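Re: duplicated header lines in exported structure tokens

Our pipeline writes sequence and tokens for each protein into one text file. With two proteins the header for the second block appears twice in some exports. Here is an export where it did not happen, for reference. First protein block:
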Amino acid sequence: MSMFESLGRYGMAIRNAHKRNRSVRALNSLPPEIQRDIGWPVSPREDPQVTFSALLLGSAR
């Protein structure tokens, strides 16, 4: 395995993780009623981790 193959795999892993996180953020931003309708677990609105992340990162991108 060459160095470029390893870098390519690493880049694809980062890209896939970014896409997955973006999808989760989009689904979590939906109203709880719609999340229930599509079978997505309703995200807690008062989660301390979410509050802390919002404080550090600002508004959603």
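Second protein block, exported in the same file:
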Amino acid sequence: MDWLTAAKSFVLIAEQASFTQAAQQLGISSSAVSKRIDWLERQLGTSLLIRTTRQVTLSESGQVFLPKARALLAQFESVMTHTQEMNQIPTGTLKIAATLAVGNSILMPSIQSFLATYPEISIQLNVLAPGAPPDLHHDLVITRHYDEFDSIAHKGCSLLTYQMSLFASPSYLLQHPNIDKLEDLAGHNMLLSSYYQQKGHIVLNDGSKFDFTHYNFVSDHLDVMLEAAEQGMGLIFISPSYLTKQLDAGTLVPVLPAIQSAKKQLWAYYPKSAFTPLKTRMFIDHLKQRLSSMQT
């Protein structure tokens, strides 16, 4: 156990007013968080938190210690940041989480060019489950913008604004001609991700909803979904950002191009601190520059 780890846990509990929520943010168990606080209280020789079955509040000592703990963490972040930025060369390991689709099609080209530019950096790219909120395990979580996500432990910024459109294979359209308007899609089979299967609809750019009532294939593997679409298994609602190869080759073509989803955003979420690490900031800047040409 160390002071910084324990102090960070204490500050997060104080901000969340919950051991459980703090544990979720830290990616550890509630019992592990409790052990950190017990250790901290023993070191200080005083109780910092008043715990009941319903709530967690600060003791008088906790109220005094909280701003000092925040200052300690901010000072440590400052030392780390300034030390790392001495030569303006990012180093260390950058841990990133993204869904398979985003990782494969959006991130990998940028990761390749970033590593070529900054060879002192290593990147660990992990899979983020569709619909999963950002966590504190990673330096960066790249995912769709969550309107409902309100975390005092995170910062975020927009990377890409996009819209989703309908696509199908030429063979599918030969078998299913006469798709001229939205109403003609009734009865057509859709290829869905688990997120849209659960949601059941997509909001269109005019504010209306298109319901996904007919589907027989659900997958969160982008390559599998695109293969299914190319094989004529159904229609796919997707951003053209993912379809560069397929559109160039003509294996997928637009269907009702005037029908688009409401605008969506891809965001980068990262832990909130007084100083964002150089490696994180530089990768975000690199990613923004690379993605600027993909705006739809």
